Amino acid sequence: MISFLLHLLVLTNTYVILGVSYNLLIGYAGLFSIAHAAFFGVGAYVSMVVVLSLGWPYLVGLGAAVVVAAAVSGLLAFPALRVSGDYLVIASLGFQVIIFNVFMNWESITGGPAGVSRIPRPGFLGWTVESPLAYGLLSCVMAVGAYLFVRRIVSSPFGRVLRAIREDEVVTQALGKNVTGVKVVVFMVSGGVAATAGSLFAHYTTYINPYFFTLEESILILSVVIVGGAGNLTGSVLGAVVLTLLPQALRLVELPEALAANLRQIIYAALLAGFMFFRPQGILAERTLTLAGKD
Amino acid sequence: MALLLQLLFNGVVVGAVYGLLAVGFGLIFTTTRIFHFAHGAVYTLAGYIVYSLTTTLGWPLAAGIALAMGICGVVSGAIEVAIYRPLRARGASPLVVLIASLSILMLAQNLLAIFYGNEIRSLAGAVVFSGFEAGPIWVTSIQLVTIATCGALFGLLKLFLRYSRYGKIIRALANNYEAARIIGADPDRTFLVTFVIGGILVVPAAVLVGMLTGLKPFGGTSAVLVAAIAVIVGGMGSIMGAAPGALIIGISENLAVWRIATEWQTAVAFSVLLLFIIFKPTGFFGQRVRKMEV
Fold this sequence. Notes:
- Chain A is mainly α.
- Chain A has helices at 2-28, 36-53, 58-82, 86-105, 107-110, 132-154, 157-167, 169-174, 179-205, 215-228, 233-245, 257-278, and strands spanning 123-124, 127-128.
């Protein structure tokens, strides 16, 4: 029972990292891309390759995961510089599908559809994170780290520029802000932070395959942010908790695995649709400043 | 050389089917500005309705298609009335509408997966796959039927848009929403018409894909993505431009097989899209849109 709760804790923390990093992109910068599972996956695969195939220490794997995912995410910024709105949605979905195809087909590195197993647990200077409790703590440290890092960004002047771009790109540019540069940086930061979740996940499950990083996964991460509240980091934490725990209710009834997977997706979809109708701002809405004397 | 011609021809056939999807999606998108992901849900539903009617109940194919067209027209219209119209009425942002549409797609596909199972179902039982040699290439009857059906439907849609009353209102609303409203166009009713037409148009596409490659519960996602790509490549703002856009995707997907492994085929369409977005975001036939805001 305790180990199951710790398992849920690790899972929740993974989605907290994914949620806050994705919120930075869609909630604060207003760049509506649906490809976050791709960066989650890049992080998982790069970390796996560095630690398992090359045999380097875990922290090197984590670092490499962040660097590579940030670079790949920077690539997605290129179409995002040209287009926005619906176009960006489609471009990012395309990006997601291409990355998924790379995981599937670059078999010498990724193991193809069969995936890679026996990924070692993270080790720090001869100490290996093995027990569920230790892993739960590690996941907490990484989730809190990601949360504080993203909160630092959004409350900085850089964060104000992000929100300004979301509200009006042209005005922001007219104020002398480097909109292009900011967009590229925010894509890279968001992808880089997502990669830490990928690394955490890969070394936790010790097995990854491409089906962990599909379009459906991207939509799940989208649900975390939308349900919690776009533009509110506490909301993303809440969203991660709700969306990890809610499907656990399905465990109370005995269901075949395929059916349970479909039902999970149905729950997510119904939640998303419900929120769009009744509370599009999410559980916790973004806190906005209102000027005195203005309503 | 013969191989290249064969791939080109296969590409045209696939492109024609994509075109049906894309023109329906494009018609809805250009008129209503709704990014109608749920188009993929109607498409998946269409294939399974025809499958149930012909394979399970033993109806003739034509009757199955006719009833499916009726049902899908109604379902597509119902999505507009029950989902998009209320969201529009409360002034929801385009992204809210898009997420709602995406969730309808997920919901429908997973329900269909529970009902029909995850395995591929083939509609091919109903038709004979005879073929003949036309010069250096091999042509099957189903491919000819595909091209003929798609060509005829494109023609009909083009005539409808050009000459019918609703066709003119649709073009007016797509061209300039505010001005069209001032002269009395009723957006709610016109939008409903475009959704019904879009719903009807997915049926032949779903049947043809069901015969060429089989039905999958999650085939709708890639179908609607290809349709959206075709609309972008063809040029947003041009309703029929989606058809040549779809042709380009179908042909490039198939020609790619000539040089790269088939596993990468699905990535080709998206690579074409990313190239277009980076180098020519207005597509082939889209007018250069100047954004004017007050």
